[in-house]
Specification:
Order of helices and strands: HHHHHH
Radius of gyration: 28 Å
Strand content: under 5%
Largest sheet: none
């Protein structure tokens, strides 16, 4: 695409709230700011799409929560020292029940299989398809950056 084609193509995808800088230094700062914003956006989208890493992260969090709950239950059990064998059995049953409940909670929050993780990924893809504005905005931003980089290259060549 030539520079004449670009000038005839109409305005860029720049948001109307940001005026086009006239000063080359301002333009460079604007480009750098836009690049940082794009990098943040791409990083956020990458994180959303990376189901495996998110699942592993969630599993680590849940394991930590389970360990903390177990520690709390042990502390509570230590403070409630049973005075008889019956009390000891009852307390043991309570601890076992609490541990079972915590395990069940952890099991319901983490995908059990690659198929379940793929199902979650398909759900995200469907959401992206149902909300194409997100994908369109990202494409428009990348195209806008390419146009700006192309203009910058031409102005540096002519300087």
């Amino acid at each position: 695409m030539s520079s004449d084609d670009l000038s005839q193509a109409g305005p860029t995808t720049r948001p109307p709230t940001r005026p086009v800088p006239n000063n080359p230094d301002e333009l460079r700062r604007d480009i750098e700011e836009t690049r940082r914003e794009l990098a943040d956006t791409v990083e956020a989208l990458s994180y959303k799409v990376d189901i495996k890493s998110r699942s592993q992260e969630k599993a680590r969090e849940l394991r930590s929560q389970v360990a903390e709950k177990a520690r709390q239950v042990r502390e509570q059990a230590a403070t409630k020292v049973p005075h008889s064998p019956e009390e000891a059995r009852e307390l043991g049953a309570q601890v076992a029940e609490k541990a079972r409940q915590v395990r069940e909670q952890a099991a319901t929050k983490v995908p059990h299989s690659p198929e379940e993780a793929r199902g979650q990924a398909r759900e995200i893809q469907r959401t992206m398809r149902e909300n194409p504005a997100i994908a369109a905005a990202l494409v428009a931003l990348v195209l806008w950056l390419l146009v700006l980089c192309g203009r910058r290259g031409r102005t540096e060549d002519s300087a």
